[in-house]
Amino acid sequence: MKKVYGTAAEALDGLLSDGMLIAAGGFGLCGIPELLIDAIVESGIKDLTVASNNAGVDGFGLGKLLETKQIKKMMSSYVGENAEFMRQYLSGELELEFNPQGTLAERMRAGGAGIPGFYTQTGVGTQIAEGKEVKIFNGKEYILEEGIFADLAIVKAWKADTTGNAIFRKTARNFNPPAAMCGKICVMEVEEIVEPGELDPDHIHLPGIYVHRLIKGEHEKRIEQRTVRQKEAS
Amino acid sequence: MKKVYGTAAEALDGLLSDGMLIAAGGFGLCGIPELLIDAIVESGIKDLTVASNNAGVDGFGLGKLLETKQIKKMMSSYVGENAEFMRQYLSGELELEFNPQGTLAERMRAGGAGIPGFYTQTGVGTQIAEGKEVKIFNGKEYILEEGIFADLAIVKAWKADTTGNAIFRKTARNFNPPAAMCGKICVMEVEEIVEPGELDPDHIHLPGIYVHRLIKGEHEKRIEQRTVRQKEAS
Amino acid sequence: MAWDRNQMAARAAQELDDGMYVNLGIGIPTLVANYVGDKDITLQSENGMLGMGPFPFEGEEDADLINAGKQTITELPRTSYFDSATSFGMIRGGKIAAAILGAMEVAENGDLANWMIPGKLVKGMGGAMDLVAGVGKVIVVMDHTNKHGDSKVLKECTLPLTGKGVVDRIITNLGVLDVVEGGLKIVECADGVTEEELRAATLATIV
Amino acid sequence: MAWDRNQMAARAAQELDDGMYVNLGIGIPTLVANYVGDKDITLQSENGMLGMGPFPFEGEEDADLINAGKQTITELPRTSYFDSATSFGMIRGGKIAAAILGAMEVAENGDLANWMIPGKLVKGMGGAMDLVAGVGKVIVVMDHTNKHGDSKVLKECTLPLTGKGVVDRIITNLGVLDVVEGGLKIVECADGVTEEELRAATLATIV
Q: Name one GO molecular function term (chains C, D) (predicted).
């Protein structure tokens, strides 16, 4: 069963359709599936719903899919770094479903774990709770949130073996595992592909069962906020 | 903040009380907190409810706590290896709440993740569903299962650093992370304690935030079913 | 004439396709692993492992490496380990393509009973309820009748259920049956077994 | 006279005890890390890290290592990384002892608003709603009044809420107030600020 493909376009071949729900990994610009996003821009599919914590920035990451207006709706927790997003949203061109960050991550994990709904205290008494079922456990109010079952997951890992077993690096892990889990099909881009046996089985972050197709590519890995400190004189 | 204690009894000091709910890691005899179980036997506390996938075997693991009749109720998925358990259960001395294995694991994880309830298809239409709330998602029936919030979690890892960051070895991981997460307090026994920085931060299975007290000890690690194959003549 | 345990396992192995992630139950299902041949099958052990290897050589047993039947096993190059919550997440989430399980009883509507005999046998369901609720395809492999000669393929289960309407295909020593609208459909008879013999040994409606 | 940003951060740092796992929000809360001194505090970054270190030296930035404010940071010997579902599991599960957050408005019943201004500012709540719902203690650090001089410590919030009844303590440039039964209680006044000045700048009921 070959999972390794040559290019992002090849890996996505036959998987894309208008109106589909895509879950994307990444936090800010960290750990985003750059190459797969570019290939989706190239494909021209439209009316997408995208579940992703952020919406990229103007001209990079999901920001590109916003510029081409291929996205109909975003499910996100924070979109503050994207002027084009703001413009489309305020003008009514784009739908936006705000999800608290933890609720979004848990909804993805739940979808992947066959859990259609769970209760959380997050958002009780706020706009987020409007229209949602409330239930009392131990005298406290909780709201029902539903699992996300995406048609396609696009994620980015550091290394994977050819069976799709993947490891992530530092905070680039973020939403990638839950996004991968909630996709009916998951396509992953990595910086390095190795043979089975080269990764320690105890250290796999995402088992290959969650990964259907795999590409290796060059990543820009743009930094959003470059903050540094000065070396003290020695 | 010192997390490392000398002995299991010292690590449990002040944490034990009659009638408490204890979540224990392990699957069969693999990855069980042997030393902490022994110390709880020694403590003499009683009327315990224990959430653990299995109940040990006669004379080892949780089987010891059954022999001393310190356990009032077990929450388990499989107790087939324990004659004393069966006797106490059939004679009505012991309560038993059967949980499907995945439901038990998810209930622990949910408790640890602040989720008081979630829906699952597991057990729909069976005895397990009796008395549980049913909800329809997308035309299918699901039942409500509740998070487990344990007073104390006892778990076993392979190695930990002094801040409690822990890694497990092979299938000895099993219920240990979810059990650790659902405890108000978690006490962990390990085979080796190292200094912070010796474990790769990308490879921590259970972050130290979940681990309140820590001991190193010698483990018997008994094998339940020793199965082998013959080396072919070469 | 009928299939023996190994022939049943070999027949069950035909259900598996290249690339599948599969969970094998205890007993005859375990033998299926011997018959997958060149197919690229990855076995899950629900206690937290994908890529289960064979039993270890004598002296190489590892107490930290067991399968769901608590037997010592080995790992493969493709192996990954994870915790029980993740393991059953992938089961409930439909990531496992098929489970091959034993049974005490199967009914014509796909009901499955394989976890307890009230008052007699109280071992627990282990991971069976999660598996039958979550995996893509549930294949039961069992003897067609019990040791008293009574059919285990029934109109309705008499024992407490493991899952309701969950079985897709039944492979017994007498043949292969599919759960379809209205009852069971004979897919094939075992070597030397006639359709009449298969029907006679079956209490379920055959359509 | 009143506290400046650094003095507010220093005051907030006094809330932290040895051994605590803490989440610091963006803005003044970030400065709190500079004032924890010898206390053994572990900082969580909710994008998937415990044990957040300082900014990197120039040239040592790592695109794979950022905090929740998307700033490049470093790791410590005690650091561990995990995914977002696990990260918010520990937040919702009450494992984080305290969160120190900024705010647009706080009300006397503990309501907090810090995520949007309808029609104007639509950035999103990020992890703030999860934090205020889940952590042990919510401490707000903010200027007592906005740039127009209006109090941000109100009887009722006017902006969409981040959480209902979630704030435990408010630290502003003018002093420290606790949310108690019936309103706010003055814990202390900032250097050179009188109780009268603090009351005058506060619209919330002070009990």
A: succinyl-CoA:3-oxo-acid CoA-transferase activity
Q: State mean pLDDT over C135-155.
A: 96
Question: A8-102+109-114+149-216: which CATH topology?
Answer: Glutaconate Coenzyme A-transferase (3.40.1080)
Residue B233: pLDDT above 70?
no
Among candidate residues C15, C46, C105, C108, the one labeled active-site is C46
- Could you say which of C78, C93, C96 has the minimum Cβ distance to residue A112? C93
DSSP assignment letter at D160: P
pTM: 0.97
Concerning whether D46 is annotated as a catalytic residue, the answer is yes
CATH label, D5-201, candidates 3.40.50.11210, 3.30.420.40, 3.40.1080.10, 3.40.50.2000:
3.40.1080.10
Q: What is the mean pLDDT of chain C?
A: 96
Q: How far is the alpha carbon of B51 from chain D, nearest alpha carbon, in Å?
A: 18
How confident is the model over C163-175, as pLDDT tens digits?
999 999 999 999 9
- Please state the domain extents for chain D: 5-201
Residue B12 CB: number of other CB atoms within 10 A? 23
Measure the CA–CA gap between B56 and D151, rounded to whole angstroms.
Answer: 62
The residue-averaged pLDDT of C94-101 equals 98
Residue D198 structure tokens: 């603090």
* pLDDT value of residue A149: 98
Most C-contacting residue of B90, B101, B190 (CB-CB within 10 A), to test interface: B101
DSSP C57-99: BTT---TT-B-TTSBB--EEEEEEE--HHHHHHHHHTT-S-EE
Arithmetic mean of pLDDT, D152-180: 98
Q: Which B positions 113-142 lie with beta carbon below 8 A of chain C?
A: 120-128
D90 with B210: Cβ contact below 8 A: yes
Structure confidence at residue A187 (pLDDT): 98
| Among candidate residues D79, D75, D72, D43, the one with its CA nearest the CA of residue D58 | D72
User: Closest by alpha carbon to C204, among C166, C172, C157, C149?
Assistant: C157
Residues of A at the B interface (Cβ-Cβ below 8 Å)? Answer: 106, 110, 113-121, 135, 137-138, 140, 142, 146, 167-170, 200-203
Q: What is the DSSP string of A143-211?
A: EEEEPP-EEEEEEE-SEEETT--EE--GGG-TTHHHHHHTEEEEEEEESEEE-TTSS-GGG-SB-GGG-
